[in-house]
Amino acid sequence: MLTFVVKMARILCIDFGLKRCGIAVTDPYQIIVSGLGTIDTDKLIGFLEQYIRTENVEKVVVGLPVHKDGNFTHIKKDIDKFVAILKDKFSELTIDFGDEQFSSVHAKQIIIDSGVKKQKRRDKALVDKISAVVILQRYLKHI
């Protein structure tokens, strides 16, 4: 007899930025990744408190920016501070990191390939949201 374990909690991903963050999330079965939107960084914790209160989230993945040479970018210290706040406020959640390298480049290409008009392609918030999707899809492939 085969037994299947079905996960019933979402994984949320944050493409962290100093001004704005892209947010993506899985379905409860952790199969499908969808862009949730973007949120101003100064409103992110409040958004997460509300979202986690209404949705069953088991893990938060934060994009980790790395240069081509393997060194972290200048934003790493800000990400570390943010993750410390996350761990303090949401101690029941697993916090992990995902590969953010070239996610914006990949997101821009996805937007172009999807036929979005040139005016809309300049929308940095759309790029941030799709970048979070890219990070979470990569993460799911490697767990």
What key phrases describe this protein's structure?
143 residues; alpha/beta; Nucleotidyltransferase, domain 5; 5-stranded mixed beta sheet; 5 helices; 5 strands
What features would you describe in this structure?
- The protein has a single domain, classed as YqgF/RNase H-like domain (Nucleotidyltransferase, domain 5).
- The chain is 41% helix and 24% strand.
- It has 5 helices and 5 strands, in the order βββαβαβααα.
- A 5-stranded mixed sheet has the order 3-2-1-4-5, sandwiched between helices.
- β2 (20-26) and β3 (33-40) form a beta hairpin.
- α3 packs across α5 (124-141).
How many domains? The number is 1
Range of helix content: 40-55%
CATH topology name: Nucleotidyltransferase, domain 5
Q: Spans of 5+ residues with little confidence (pLDDT < 50)?
A: none
- CATH-level-2 architecture: 2-Layer Sandwich
Output the strand order for the largest sheet. 3-2-1-4-5
Oligomer: single chain
Count of individual helical segments: 5
| Number of beta-strand segments | 5
Offer a quick outline of the entry.
The protein is α/β, with parallel strands linked by helices and 143 residues long. The protein has helices spanning 44-54, 76-89, 103-113, 118-121, 124-141; strands at residues 10-15, 20-26, 33-40, 57-64, 94-99.
